[in-house]
Design brief:
Layout (H helix, E strand, L loop, with lengths): L32 H16 L5 E7 L2 E7 L9 H22 L9 H21 L8 E3 L1 H23 L17
Antiparallel strand pairs: 1-2, 1-3
Helix pairs in contact: 1-2, 1-4, 2-3, 2-4, 3-4
Keywords: Membrane, Transmembrane, Transmembrane helix
Length: about 180
Amino acid sequence: MSHDVPPPPGPPAQPPNSGVPSGNSFDPASVARPDWAILGIGFIVFIFSFFNYYKWEYRGLGINLSSTWSAWHFDHGLFIAWLAMVATVVGAAVVAISLFSPAVQLPQPARALSFLAFAVGFVLYLIAIFAHSDFGPNGGHDFSFWISLVLSGAGAVIALMRAQQTNTALPGPLASLPRIGK
């Protein structure tokens, strides 16, 4: 006597166009180019944080001395550049979470958080130009600092553009910023 037992039911099917990727169906082509730019900026700023943010050199009287510091050096007010880097990377990470893990609930819309993080990073980089110990005439900011400053500013502009393109409400007076991009 054989009993035909039906197989157990599978997971419920996703409704069409639910916006939730099913399984391994992520399509990189579905990500807008500005979003890839935001992700790339965060990655590049993180990588450059390990290179020279500050430098000091002395050459004279037969003596050659030099020293460099990355964003991961926290003495003498240099932590501000580290904090700027972290804010910039967080701005990119928020977009990554919204794209690759849409089920994760963020406290605010991802586009608004991304713009705010990039903007804070950019302002902190500007502050870091002036808020460190005096290196004297033989020292100052190095190439990674300047690249990160420019990239965080570009990230803020692109993140603002994406927030406006996706009709994301920005908080307070930021809501009245002029529209940029298409």
